[in-house]
Amino acid sequence: MIRPSDALRLFHINWVLLRHGLDEVVLATHLFRPLRFLTYVSPWFWFRQDPQPYPVRIRLTLEDLGPIFVKFGQILSTRRDLLPDDLATELAKLQDRVPPFPGAEARAIIEKALGHPVERVLDAFDEIPLASASIAQVHTGRLKDGREVVVKVLRPGIDKIIRRDIGLLYIIAHLAERYWKEGRRLRPVEVVAEYEKTIFDELDLQREAANASQLRRNWQGSEALYIPEVYWDLTRSNVMVMERIYGTPVSNVAALKAQGVSMHLLGERGVEIFFTQVFRDNFFHADMHPGNIFVEPSGRYISVDFGIVGTLTTEDQRYLAENLLAFFHRDYRRVAELHVESGWVPPTTRVDEFESAIRTVSEPIFEKPLSEISFGHFLLRLFQTARRFNMEIQPQLVLLQKTLLNIEGLGRQLYPELDLWTTAKPFMERWMKDQVGPKALLARARKSLPLIAEDLPELPLRILKIVRQLERQGDHGDWRGAEIQRLQRDLARQQARGVSATVGSVLILAGTLLLLLGPGPLISHGAALTAAVLCLAGGGLLLARLWLWFE
Predict the structure, then answer these.
(1) Is residue 184 in a domain?
(2) Residue 201 contacts by C-beta under 8 Å, 6 or more apart in sequence?
């Protein structure tokens, strides 16, 4: 049911569409389709000037409709599966050109959030904003101890505006899913739901501050990336105070070169930061456009604006890593198999046909520098290929695609000669080795050791109870006795595996402690070393045997 306010907003949207010469969009809807004859009899259509190109009119329309549509257009610009290439390229130009709200109003919001005048916590506060965007604007200030800060303040009333327009997006998405032949495969309702989560996360500055703190911990002491400090005592849901940073905007390549910054180093570090955030941390900055990135003279990146971050499930992360590695090795059959295994394409898909299609798209871009590769064009071809095989869009990967395209644009701007594959491949190989190698097995065993140790003493009694319960159910044929015997054998094997895991982990931990602590008053150096080697060897053999069991 559409409320009167929603109906008025829909009519306003149609008016903006008409104003920008998008009457074909309005007249294509069920509501206005009967009025198509007006295009033949109205002087409005006879004498109007030739409009600008269609993609430009779409971009201008979204800018006129307001911040929620601007941001949605920015997200859509990364969805090459939904849009023609020229339209996606035009939408990528969308910027938050929003006039600032008065500085006195920002001061009032800060004082209400903190519960006392600004002067009690700040020695200085500039009411002229440093930057203004669709969700919030930023002011500069100085703490009582002299530290310079930035103060981010949410726009007044922005929550109400966003809720209204998200509701309209849902209406449009449901209509698209119902009447558009591509609607079910492209899952527009889920895309809007993913966008809703993203945009409302941006409305909570405490969440953004928490994102910044997590990223700062992940990159503490790094020479590649710096994250400014959050001042939690002065942060609320609509106000955030952070350390002020100084650096050169990453888009100012001339200034960076004048400072002697290595463009090659910046290009490689950008790739390293992206893959590290996605795979090592599983927590990545998902709004890495040039306006949010600065560079120190040493070549270290500085990142700001943490309202949008992304994570993946363990399964998606693993499948994505295996896909990338298989892709780097040009093992297109494995790429096709992984798409089937993950459920990204129907189980009835012919792997050999899918493999051939992926090879056709992928081979032309290998061994080329970034300057000769367009990820946008490549993704478009890949999505067109996937469409033939009924591949469903994965909404949880939208932010990752967006971030990857941002990285491409950044790399192309900084160091077009960068070989993305050569830079990324060793990182992915190391990550996979860490995930499935002996170290990873030992880490998982150590993590599960407390649970195993807690349940192990009760395991024989539980097994005995299960077997007796089954026996009491009566002998209903030889198959029931055979099933009980098989269950007994399986349970015995599980018990043996649990004991092996526990003993092996304990031996390895004991050996490690002996090596770290060394000899003591009751044990000589030689005895400590011998005991450590025996413990590590014994534990390693038991865990290796356990690994073979699972294999």
Answers:
(1) no
(2) 207, 208, 307, 308
Domain range for 18 is: 4-92
Residue 33 forms part of a structural domain: yes
Distance CA 116, CA 118 (A): 7
Query: Which CA distances in Å does 212 have to 91, 134, 255?
Result: 28, 20, 27
Using alpha carbons, select from 394, 299, 390, 301 the residue that is nearest to residue 350: 390
Query: Which residues have C-beta within 8 Å of that of residue 544, sequence separation ≥ 6?
Result: none
**Model confidence pLDDT, tens digit, residues 271-326:** 889 889 988 899 999 887 777 899 999 999 999 999 888 888 887 888 778 887 88
Asked if the structure places residue 139 within a domain, the reply is: no
Q: Kindly list the catalytic residues.
A: 287
Half-sphere CA count of 120, side-chain side, radius 13 A: 10
Total domains present in the chain: 3
DSSP summary character for residue 230? B
Secondary structure letter of residue 457 according to DSSP: G
Rounded CA separation 468/260 (Å): 78
d(CA 174, CA 171): 5
- CA gap 331, 333 in Å, rounded: 6
Residues 205, 143: Cα–Cα separation, whole Å: 19
Q: Nearest Cα to 422, choosing from 379, 369, 364, 373?
A: 369
Mark whether 453 and 311 lie in a shared domain.
no
> Strands 136-143 and 148-154: what pairing?
antiparallel
Dump pLDDT digits (tens) for 512-537. 655 555 555 555 556 666 666 666 66
How far separated are the first and last CA of the chain, in Å rounded? 56
Does the residue 19 lie in any domain? Answer: yes
**Cα–Cα distance measured from residue 215 to residue 309, given in angstroms and rounded to the nearest whole number:** 10
Q: How do 136-143 and 225-226 pair as beta strands?
A: unpaired
134's tokens: 């669709």
Are the C-beta atoms of residues 138 and 150 closer than 8 Å to each other?
yes
Helix (H/G/I), strand (E/B), else coil: 320: helix
**pTM of the model as a whole:** 0.67
| 400 & 293 share domain | yes
Cα radius of gyration (the chain): 30
